[in-house]
């Protein structure tokens, strides 16, 4: 897999012991690398922009901006055009992102199934493949599907591989790195990857706190606090599937997880849902009512302690099912027969912006965030 980098690879927090947003004490090469990221991120978010506008967004000087733009143009990451002045005034050169200047591959990995996507620098998905997973040979499966994706698009400048998985290990990353055709991947858990997709290319606002709930074989939650992923001291923040919920005090995973849904509606209808087919049936409606009644408890806890600006819900369920679940949650929050209090202060709820919760998309963004774009803490 080929690499295109704008500077030295940004070391992870665990490698440096320094928070990601810290810039004090950086070497000159690292400062230059960060300034390049600042300019590229400004163009990606707000472009096309002139040099003057880039100066306002970045705080950098004119000569510095010119040098950075020259380098980005040489690496074919930005393009320039003439902008006509208003009322026949002077024209200026504006700079825009060149999405085809870099591509990345992202893998979403579950116990028995997976998804791999190819995206460009703007976050646009160019290829998507779903595949089965052998739990005994996850490395072999990921290597095979990533190699096939890269080979299919051999002419493109693919810069790296990202993986979103709940329990991917360092040994598995080492095994991937030992295979010559696929580089060492950048890895995050599924909810963090989903939040990065929302934060980088989705509809979520960058400020405040954002919560994401992913419904799959189990139920997970993730949090962005002021744009930074929060996973807790031991990385267990968001393990809501283990909570005891509802009037019957049962574990959330046993009511809302996919095993419960499959048991309720049957294997055939469950497969139809995962294929994206939307349909209604009494058993599915019953599951939605029971799932909402139990899911509301962790949402109340999130609202009480974190007060996120929005709680997003995603996963492999069709959009219509997720919307029906959110509608049922809005009914449950007003029902005082099971909870003797009204909860108008609960954060608004909405579906995730992307199919599958954007997990594979977020995984594909990881190489960009580690080599080209500003990491969340700096954006």
UniProtKB/TrEMBL annotation:
Keyword Membrane belongs to the record: no
One of the Pfam families matching this protein, by short name: MarR_2
Superkingdom field: Bacteria
Example GO biological process: regulation of DNA-templated transcription
UniProt-annotated stretches for the region Disordered: 1-20
CDD domains per the UniProt record, alphabetical: HTH_ARSR
Signal keyword on record: no
Keywords: Plasmid
SUPFAM superfamilies from the UniProt entry: Actin-like ATPase domain (SSF53067), Winged helix' DNA-binding domain (SSF46785)
Start and end residues of each HTH marR-type domain: 39-80
Family: Belongs to the ROK (NagC/XylR) family.
Protein name stated in the entry: Transcriptional regulator protein, ROK family
Species the sequence originates in: Rhizobium leguminosarum bv. trifolii (strain WSM2304)
